[in-house]
Amino acid sequence: MEKKQEHPRREFLKIAGLFTAGLAVARIPVWARGVAFEEYPLHNIPADKGIDTAWLKSLYERGTATAYLKSRNELQFLGMPVGGLHAGTVYVGGDGRLWLWQVYNETIESTHEGIDPKTVNWHDGTKLRKIRVRDGAAYVEPAMADNKRVLEQGFAVKVEQEGKTWVRELREDHWDEIRFEAAYPMAVITYTGKNAPVEVRLKVYSPFVPLNADDSSLPATILRAEIKNISGRPMQASLVGWMENGVNKITAKAGSGKKQSKVISADTFTSIHFGYNTSDAELLTAKDAGSMSISLMGKAATTHASFNPWPVTAESFGNNTAAAAEADGDDKLVGALAVSQQMAPGDTMEADYFITWHFNNPHPGLKKLVKDADGGFEYAVRFKDAAATAAYLAAHFKRLTTLTERWQQTWNDSTLPHWFLERTFVNIGTLATANTYRFASGRFWGWEGVGACAGTCTHVWQYGHTAARIFPSIERDQRQRVDLGVAFKEDSGAIIFRAENENRPAIDGQAGTILRIYREHQMSKDDAFLRANWPKIKKAVQFMLAQDKNGDGMTDSPMENTLDAVWEGEIAWIVGLCIAAARAAQSMAEETGDTTFAKTCAAYVQKGKANMEKELFNGEYFIHRPDAVQGRKKLGSYNTCHIDQVYGQSWAFQVGLPRVLDRDKSLSALKALWKYNFTMDVGPYIKTHTGGRPYALEGEGGMIMNTNPRNEPKPYGEDVTWQLGYFHECMSGFEHQVAAHMMAEGMADEALVLTRVIHDRYHGAKRNPYNEIECSDHYARAMASYGTFISACGFEYHGPKKYIGFAPRVSPENFKAAFTAAEGWGTYSQQAGAAGQQHELKVVFGNLPVGRLMFELVQEWKPGKVTVRVNGAAVPAQFKTEGKRVLIRLKNTVMVEENGTLQIGIA
């Protein structure tokens, strides 16, 4: 285990020698310390991507939900997060057993990072390197469930039939086939056997209700079992579920106390509550001190306060044991609950189990990083222990399971390909890992990746779109409480990019946060959030505008950025991001009636756009213009092809802003990224351009961060530093950002291919599909993936204006997908034919007030009539066309209630 070091992110990487080993052997033009290396390696990404046309066509097909099978050896790496948001990490594995159990407050920077704190070996093409967690260890050598089974937990089935008894556990080696369906937030595992008299299905998830962050943040996992009699004969079937007492699992020693379990029987559920009895004050306040429980809805057939099932036999299902039990501190104490039912042929027995935990002692290191951790976690404010959580879940079980499964059905009731829905949504699981916390104060706080790089870093988290669209209350609170609160400098308007864990702003983080503020305003039901925070928002915008020192609308102040460096000059991706943020600020100023400031922002946007397109576009893509004094002395992207070069326009699409960059130039830049940075096999490139971290390996496709297509001899400056390693990597968060932009611009083929190669990199046969890795596991930037879904839908929304719009980019003639709004969610669909277009919004949860709508014509034509109906009743409306866009204004705002429909006909 590494010795803890108190350093910010750059110093951690620098001290660890993340890139120094690679740089020492890479052929790059560095004259550091007077040593001249060989010329920079030639660009070697082929322009012809060699993409099979049949494969490309298949990416558009609806297909079926991804399933991983035992028979294909695809289960060992699977780990879907199935705990509540901000409640630690609990994985369900490929065979349905829970593993990892990162609920013990161990995760902390430098000593216990990631899901598996270890260093692995990787050969980068020239040299064998040591790769830490934050360098991609889990990408090279994924954690395996069987190596991380911290607690005993599982199920077993017993069948008694015609004098014979048959017993199997729900585990990989007990069944001929196990099928794991992969759609987050619910795992569905099916168990079958050649001679098995039953088929078993297990649904595993935590309550997950979009727009309801509280009920989605329970420290709990639900396991719903279904056993079907497929034998053709009557049987007596039994199911037993067990869980180990995990309290003080790490710190307890022989003689230090007693593990205890107690059966609790309530009207609607049966539970076994686990605790630890000790007089040792240190154990009482240890990071793993707390409580756990296993529960079963309804009355259990048998209860076992102490259960020793290994191997499980017919006798293990026997009569009740004592209602309480205890064991020495270092011994296992397992509790179990069983149900039994007489079953005719074809009958199904259902049993609903759930596991809860309560460990409210944050790591001492976390308390040093953020004082809010002193008060413990938000879930502990709501529930005094695991038993209280279990009681709440039991009382609301029907509602929470119904809504979770309703969302699952709504999300997957779509014309979009299953694989695409899976990959664009999966990264919201990051919120259900040890990467994020909600403290007792209500504050949200996160690492960049699990246990690595503190402070909910603005220049990383601003790439993500998932949380803001699914749980907007969390993001609104973060903007107000932290970005405009703890992190905000009243004197200047600067937003410190890691709040109290830093002392500087980051220019991209500042701009991205302004854009996020606008998005959070749009995802609100009214303008209260914007108006309450406008003075600080305005000051934050003024700080950003002030970083344009020469007044040309292009930011040129040297300032920290997400590539962990301070670059000099005018940098296209930062300039464009600031232009987009200024345009968002213009809209917010207009809405608040601050017309003078709106004009200031509009002038900045106009000047910046014109100059960026004139000065930073090299005829093919956007570049980094060196500082007039510094020149290319320091590290920069300069004339190279950088992945984020038109990021500002990408952001503009996400929040429905008018264009901030010329369409033709934006398309040219994206096509250059496709030509020069994307490859179906990164192997040749990373072998010659060494020093990066392994987030894509030989044989895998990806988009390289920065390439030198013109083969300049010193592409990244005269004094190249360790951050150069980033340029040779494939970081999925950046790739998702580009895919979202490509989709929005009509480059659907390229967007789908780029998303698909990421999806394939994380196929279950190779590594955990639920863990996109950058600087450590479950990296926050990967939540940019949802932006590609937004772009595929052409979704626009503004809650305070009661506006919603769609312009699908995939199969617009017959399209269906989920949507979320400020107060409700549901399904949108459209069909286009010779007689016109039909559009429908169905509200599945909550409500949707609507006053204005936008749709795009599938073919450009002149509509003559628009009809609008709410639940079949006509409502008056006016419309106009702007190119292919049809803009509809209702005479009066309508409220579409839950289970209601809004139908629009364009003829």
UniProtKB/TrEMBL annotation:
GO terms of molecular function: beta-glucosidase activity
UniProt keyword terms in alphabetical order: Membrane, Transmembrane, Transmembrane helix
Gene Ontology BP annotations: carbohydrate metabolic process
Membrane-spanning ranges: 12-32
Cross-referenced InterPro entries: 6-hairpin_glycosidase_sf (IPR008928), 6hp_glycosidase-like_sf (IPR012341), GH116_catalytic (IPR006775), GH116_N (IPR024462), Non-lysos_glucosylceramidase (IPR052566), TAT_signal (IPR006311)
Signal sequence, renumbered to the chain: none
Domain Glycosyl-hydrolase family 116 catalytic region: start-end pairs: 508-786
Coiled coil: none
Domain annotation Glycosyl-hydrolase family 116 N-terminal: ranges: 79-399
Source domain of life: Bacteria
Stated name of the protein: Glycosyl-hydrolase family 116 catalytic region domain-containing protein
Annotated source species: Chitinophaga lutea
